[in-house]
Fold this sequence. Notes:
Signal peptide: 1-27
GO molecular function, one term: peptide-N4-(N-acetyl-beta-glucosaminyl)asparagine amidase activity
Strand order of the largest sheet: 4-5-6-7-16-11-10-9-14
Bound molecules: 2-acetamido-2-deoxy-beta-D-glucopyranose
Number of helices: 14
Number of strands: 20
Domain Glycosyl hydrolase family: 315-564
InterPro entries: 6-hairpin_glycosidase_sf, GH-type_carb-bd, GH92_N, Glyco_hydro_92, PNGase
Domain Glycosyl hydrolase family 92 N-terminal: 57-309
Helix content: 25-40%
Largest sheet: 9 strands, antiparallel
Strand content: 15-25%
Structural class: alpha+beta
Oligomer: single chain
Amino acid sequence: MPRISSSAPSLFLFLQCAVLWSASVNAQPDPQVQKDITAAIKAAQNSTGGHVDYTKFVNVYIGTDNFGDVCPGASVPFGMVKFSTDLTGYAPAGYVTDPTQKIRGLSPLHDSGTGSNLGTYGNFEIMPLMCPGGFNTCTTTLQTRERFRKNNTDVASPGYFAQTLDNDILMEATSTRRAGLERFTFPKGQKPYFVLDLSNDLPNSFAGGALDIDPVKGRITMGGQWGSSFGPGRFNYQAFACFDLLNGGKQKLDEYGIWSGNTNGLDAKGLHQTHINRTRSLIGDQYQFGALFSYVGSPRQITIRVGVSFVSEAQACANAESEVGGSSFAEIEAKSKLLWNEKLSKVEIDLKGTPENVTELIYSSLYRASLTPNNATGETQGLFAETTHPYFDSLYCSWDTYRTYYPLMALHSPVEFAQIVDTYIDGWRKNGWMPECRANNLPGSSGDNIVGHFAINYHNEAAALGIDLNELYSAMLADGDLKPPQWDVQGREVDAYTQYGYVPFSFLDVTGSGRQTREGSRTLEYAFEDFAIRQVALLLNKTDDIARYTNRSLFYRNVWDPSVKSDGFQGMLNFEIV
Length: 578
Ligand SMILES: *[C@@H]1O[C@H](CO)[C@@H](O)[C@H](O)[C@H]1NC(C)=O
Ligand SMILES: *[C@@H]1O[C@H](CO)[C@@H](O)[C@H](O)[C@H]1NC(C)=O
Ligand SMILES: *[C@@H]1O[C@H](CO)[C@@H](O)[C@H](O)[C@H]1NC(C)=O
Ligand SMILES: *[C@@H]1O[C@H](CO)[C@@H](O)[C@H](O)[C@H]1NC(C)=O
Ligand SMILES: *[C@@H]1O[C@H](CO)[C@@H](O)[C@H](O)[C@H]1NC(C)=O
Ligand SMILES: *[C@@H]1O[C@H](CO)[C@@H](O)[C@H](O)[C@H]1NC(C)=O
Ligand SMILES: *[C@@H]1O[C@H](CO)[C@@H](O)[C@H](O)[C@H]1NC(C)=O
């Protein structure tokens, strides 16, 4: 099913921006990043066997410019947390290389590689500040705290992210699945201040939330509701965070309080206030609020432990305790690199016989192929609360992944593939249809090709991998046979399609709704999904369905026009004829 995106830029605009952009932009990562990658590959080419650190071959900046929409943030494989800075302008994944954009803050939740213009997440931004005039003079709002980076000093690698502000404050992060550490290094002699922002996320979708400061424990807890990002619909999701400020007692909190501001000049601060709770603005105003705090003296370095959860504040704190505990930044980073090496070492190449830039591209791509979807198992809400099955969020749209990402995963990671297939089936168990493009708890449809691929590859191992093939097949049949009330968000426009043998334009539907769009593309997609159902029907000997789905899988012919010629080819899919 096509992604519903009313805000996609026109191709023309896209090309125009790309041209302007490439003319005006300097390379942003520290030039040393590329030098180190090339040197590591050269050294590995010379080495005579033994341990290879594949994380050194990965360039996490590939795709962070020219609308690549990927996140170079610190993450573990399939991590729910991806620490990155959030930048102004077009920055759907938080970070972009464009040096003319400013940094809003560092935050734990991001998506990588999604096609959403407005972006996703960016909740719980923290920004280190110097406030020479004291607490009441701190620049807390988004507009006043934004700063340029120190150009060409960005550094990131698997499990590590760092960026330096133009005032020389260094921000670093490393992560576990649902938690991590943020580390800030200040110029000498400065009192460290921090602003924490509860309401501003990247797409500006705040829908109510609350924050509490416990100055004795040195802990700030917060959470609320935000609007789901890519994909259709008006859905909210909940998210929570827990910030531990004292680094196991090594740091002393000084001032603390609440701030609130807006773009019309509100700039209020409440020293020693510890609680704030705001609803969504029903007249469309932009609320900005959060916490502001400082440390005793002028310590150069401050480390803050962060846990997140989609369940509760208590669970966000528990995640930080169980996943980070008292570990140091170096320990968490080393663990993350270990996890990445397990993934990356699944593909071994002839390093000596491969050009350095190809090695870099292979391992950088393999890195990206284990970054998303986000493993939110145990972090479920809404219909999926308390599910006993794995839960993955930020599922890429199926038409992007069924012949690329998942076939690759089928080759190198059947266990992980099975967990994701179980997530698709769980969508059917809880929602009635399998998900697609699911982000922030949205429903969806169209997982047939993906779960079908699994069934064909792994039917002998399915039970051992936790997949019941009959259940998988029932989920496919639901997509194929059951008409949903709204096929924009789940299922298919199935009755019109089976009645005509294609999806007609301008069809009077009195029992369901959905946007009248992309009828030709949907015909192809439905037919291909029907082919997947047919293959699994054959596999499982579902004799009643085999002929029916064989027939339906040939419906693509109904949009085939053998007379159309173009570019020396004859015979095209012609969506005009339907
Ligand atoms: C690799 O080996 C070659 C030949 O032995 C040598 O010239 C080169 O300096 C070595 N490079 C590295 C990065 O060790
Ligand atoms: C970084 O480079 C951009 C683009 O050239 C420029 O606008 C900005 O002022 C520079 N930032 C600093 C801190 O020099
Ligand atoms: C915030 O206030 C709302 C009512 O406006 C209430 O429903 C909610 O429970 C409060 N949340 C917290 C964490 O205090
Ligand atoms: C690698 O570099 C060579 C030489 O500059 C170039 O011809 C080739 O296209 C590059 N390959 C990739 C994958 O970038
Ligand atoms: C997802 O997280 C769960 C819970 O920690 C874990 O059991 C599972 O192996 C993880 N899966 C992947 C693919 O990371
Ligand atoms: C498939 O099912 C049919 C009846 O539905 C049965 O006659 C046939 O033996 C089955 N074939 C296999 C290979 O199990
Ligand atoms: C195939 O589908 C078409 C269109 O729905 C229908 O007219 C035809 O009877 C079907 N053929 C079989 C063998 O099911």
